[in-house]
UniProtKB/TrEMBL annotation:
<dbReference type="InterPro" id="IPR036567">
    <property type="entry name" value="RHF-like"/>
</dbReference>
<comment type="similarity">
    <text>Belongs to the HPF/YfiA ribosome-associated protein family. Long HPF subfamily.</text>
</comment>
<comment type="subunit">
    <text>Associates exclusively with 100S ribosomes, which are dimers of 70S ribosomes.</text>
</comment>
<dbReference type="Pfam" id="PF16321">
    <property type="entry name" value="Ribosom_S30AE_C"/>
</dbReference>
<dbReference type="Pfam" id="PF02482">
    <property type="entry name" value="Ribosomal_S30AE"/>
</dbReference>
<comment type="function">
    <text>Required for dimerization of active 70S ribosomes into 100S ribosomes in stationary phase; 100S ribosomes are translationally inactive and sometimes present during exponential growth.</text>
</comment>
<keyword id="KW-0810">Translation regulation</keyword>
<feature type="domain" description="Sigma 54 modulation/S30EA ribosomal protein C-terminal">
    <location>
        <begin position="130"/>
        <end position="183"/>
    </location>
</feature>
<dbReference type="GO" id="GO:0022627">
    <property type="term" value="C:cytosolic small ribosomal subunit"/>
</dbReference>
<dbReference type="InterPro" id="IPR038416">
    <property type="entry name" value="Ribosom_S30AE_C_sf"/>
</dbReference>
<dbReference type="InterPro" id="IPR032528">
    <property type="entry name" value="Ribosom_S30AE_C"/>
</dbReference>
<dbReference type="GO" id="GO:0045900">
    <property type="term" value="P:negative regulation of translational elongation"/>
</dbReference>
<dbReference type="InterPro" id="IPR034694">
    <property type="entry name" value="HPF_long/plastid"/>
</dbReference>
<comment type="subunit">
    <text>Interacts with 100S ribosomes.</text>
</comment>
<dbReference type="InterPro" id="IPR003489">
    <property type="entry name" value="RHF/RaiA"/>
</dbReference>
<dbReference type="GO" id="GO:0043024">
    <property type="term" value="F:ribosomal small subunit binding"/>
</dbReference>
<protein>
    <recommendedName>
        <fullName>Ribosome hibernation promoting factor</fullName>
    </recommendedName>
</protein>
Amino acid sequence: MRYQISGKQIDVGEALQTHVKAEMGEVVEKYAQRPTECVVVFSRVAHEFVCEATIHLSTGLTAQAKGHAAEVYAAFESCREKMDKQLRRYKRRIRNHHNHRATPVEFGGASSYILASSEEVEDVEPESLQPIVIAEMETKIPSITVGEAVMQLELAGQRMLVFRNEGHGGVNVVYRRDDGNIGWIDPRNSK
């Protein structure tokens, strides 16, 4: 597994890197058979340290966790415990999807844009209805089943996931609703 351990305006020493590799390796070994990459970023917000971890699995799934504490090691332990809990909760499903999938998850490319917000006065008419593009980025869209998309949404803690449905090849969306349930948009099923 490839590790990327860094700090935002924090010096991450050799001892902390060794500790992170040992602990994350142990967590991942328990639940995932072939992880590919682990990214851990330490930062500081006011008096607290923040640890954000992302693990990319060979099944195409991504798990994310975040921990806060007054000390850097405690922040990492909080993050590690959350990651452990997520992977434990989905262990059976991760392994089942991995065993039934004959080929790795394919990712298609797409453009992703960041648009400027329109914070204008209500009485003033906008000059143009065209939004201002602030940034353009490349994003990857996985080709997975609806069940895998819901699991990815849960593991990554995201609010929304766009994916290509393996069943029919169309673009679908799963999202977390305000009532706590998961919504699924499949334009192909519209009448």
